[in-house]
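Holo model, zinc ion. Inputs:
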Amino acid sequence: MIDDYPIPIACPYCGSRVIFTSNAVIYGREYGNGRCYKCTSCDAYVGVHNGTKVPLGRLANRELRELKKQCHSLFDPVWKLNISIKREKAYRCLANALGIPMNECHFGWFDRDMLYKALFVLRQPEWYKE
Ligand SMILES: [Zn+2]
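Output:
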Protein backbone atom coordinates (compact mmCIF):
# COMPACT_ATOMS: atom_id res chain seq x y z
CA MET A 1 0.00 0.00 0.00
CA ILE A 2 1.34 3.40 -0.96
CA ASP A 3 -0.02 6.36 0.93
CA ASP A 4 0.56 9.47 -1.10
CA TYR A 5 2.72 12.12 0.49
CA PRO A 6 2.00 15.56 -0.98
CA ILE A 7 4.17 16.68 -3.89
CA PRO A 8 6.66 19.32 -2.68
CA ILE A 9 6.35 22.73 -4.34
CA ALA A 10 8.56 24.96 -2.18
CA CYS A 11 11.59 23.89 -0.15
CA PRO A 12 10.74 23.82 3.59
CA TYR A 13 14.33 24.85 4.45
CA CYS A 14 15.12 27.74 2.10
CA GLY A 15 11.79 28.49 0.40
CA SER A 16 13.13 27.99 -3.12
CA ARG A 17 11.32 26.18 -5.92
CA VAL A 18 11.39 22.38 -6.00
CA ILE A 19 11.64 20.50 -9.31
CA PHE A 20 10.98 16.93 -10.39
CA THR A 21 14.21 15.78 -12.00
CA SER A 22 16.78 13.05 -12.59
CA ASN A 23 18.62 11.96 -9.45
CA ALA A 24 21.84 12.19 -11.44
CA VAL A 25 21.88 15.82 -10.23
CA ILE A 26 22.55 14.38 -6.76
CA TYR A 27 24.59 11.25 -7.35
CA GLY A 28 26.38 12.02 -10.62
CA ARG A 29 24.49 9.23 -12.33
CA GLU A 30 20.98 7.80 -12.08
CA TYR A 31 20.30 5.39 -9.23
CA GLY A 32 17.28 3.15 -8.64
CA ASN A 33 14.23 4.55 -10.38
CA GLY A 34 16.28 7.60 -11.35
CA ARG A 35 13.86 10.32 -10.23
CA CYS A 36 13.61 12.74 -7.35
CA TYR A 37 12.30 16.07 -6.16
CA LYS A 38 15.14 18.52 -5.65
CA CYS A 39 15.36 22.03 -4.27
CA THR A 40 16.75 24.43 -6.88
CA SER A 41 18.89 26.24 -4.27
CA CYS A 42 19.98 23.99 -1.40
CA ASP A 43 20.80 20.26 -1.16
CA ALA A 44 17.35 19.11 0.02
CA TYR A 45 15.76 16.29 -1.98
CA VAL A 46 13.56 13.22 -1.77
CA GLY A 47 13.17 10.16 -3.98
CA VAL A 48 9.94 8.80 -5.45
CA HIS A 49 8.11 5.47 -5.42
CA ASN A 50 9.07 3.37 -8.44
CA GLY A 51 7.33 4.33 -11.65
CA THR A 52 5.42 7.21 -10.05
CA LYS A 53 5.79 10.87 -9.21
CA VAL A 54 4.77 10.13 -5.60
CA PRO A 55 7.48 11.34 -3.20
CA LEU A 56 8.80 8.86 -0.61
CA GLY A 57 8.21 11.49 2.06
CA ARG A 58 9.16 15.02 2.93
CA LEU A 59 12.02 16.88 1.28
CA ALA A 60 15.09 16.04 3.37
CA ASN A 61 18.13 18.14 4.11
CA ARG A 62 21.42 16.69 5.35
CA GLU A 63 20.30 16.57 8.99
CA LEU A 64 17.06 14.74 8.17
CA ARG A 65 18.87 12.27 5.92
CA GLU A 66 21.33 11.51 8.71
CA LEU A 67 18.51 11.01 11.26
CA LYS A 68 16.63 8.71 8.85
CA LYS A 69 19.78 6.67 8.32
CA GLN A 70 20.21 6.29 12.09
CA CYS A 71 16.58 5.19 12.48
CA HIS A 72 16.90 2.57 9.74
CA SER A 73 20.15 1.25 11.20
CA LEU A 74 18.30 0.53 14.46
CA PHE A 75 14.93 -0.47 13.00
CA ASP A 76 15.78 -2.66 10.00
CA PRO A 77 17.87 -5.34 11.78
CA VAL A 78 14.95 -6.00 14.13
CA TRP A 79 12.75 -7.44 11.38
CA LYS A 80 15.51 -8.48 8.99
CA LEU A 81 17.48 -10.54 11.50
CA ASN A 82 14.67 -11.55 13.81
CA ILE A 83 12.64 -14.42 12.40
CA SER A 84 9.80 -13.96 14.90
CA ILE A 85 9.27 -10.24 14.12
CA LYS A 86 7.68 -9.31 10.82
CA ARG A 87 8.29 -5.90 9.28
CA GLU A 88 4.62 -5.01 9.71
CA LYS A 89 4.72 -5.82 13.42
CA ALA A 90 7.85 -3.74 13.87
CA TYR A 91 6.10 -0.75 12.25
CA ARG A 92 2.99 -1.34 14.35
CA CYS A 93 5.03 -1.35 17.58
CA LEU A 94 6.86 1.81 16.56
CA ALA A 95 3.60 3.55 15.58
CA ASN A 96 2.07 2.61 18.95
CA ALA A 97 5.09 3.89 20.84
CA LEU A 98 4.96 7.17 18.91
CA GLY A 99 1.19 7.49 19.25
CA ILE A 100 0.55 7.79 15.52
CA PRO A 101 -1.49 5.71 13.03
CA MET A 102 0.44 2.93 11.39
CA ASN A 103 -0.23 4.32 7.90
CA GLU A 104 1.66 7.47 8.88
CA CYS A 105 4.58 5.55 10.31
CA HIS A 106 7.24 6.03 7.63
CA PHE A 107 10.67 7.43 8.45
CA GLY A 108 10.55 9.36 5.20
CA TRP A 109 7.43 11.19 6.39
CA PHE A 110 8.79 12.17 9.80
CA ASP A 111 9.93 15.67 10.58
CA ARG A 112 12.98 16.37 12.75
CA ASP A 113 11.07 16.10 16.06
CA MET A 114 9.41 12.82 15.12
CA LEU A 115 12.73 11.36 13.96
CA TYR A 116 14.25 12.21 17.34
CA LYS A 117 11.26 10.61 19.09
CA ALA A 118 11.63 7.51 16.92
CA LEU A 119 15.35 7.32 17.74
CA PHE A 120 14.51 7.51 21.44
CA VAL A 121 12.02 4.61 21.08
CA LEU A 122 14.37 2.54 18.95
CA ARG A 123 17.12 2.85 21.55
CA GLN A 124 14.96 1.25 24.24
CA PRO A 125 15.71 -2.46 24.72
CA GLU A 126 13.08 -4.68 23.11
CA TRP A 127 10.82 -1.81 22.02
CA TYR A 128 9.28 -4.26 19.52
CA LYS A 129 7.94 -6.57 22.20
CA GLU A 130 4.19 -6.14 22.69
ZN1 LIG B 1 16.07 24.46 -0.34
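The two ends are 24 Å apart (CA to CA). The chain has a mean pLDDT of 94.
Archived with the compound record.
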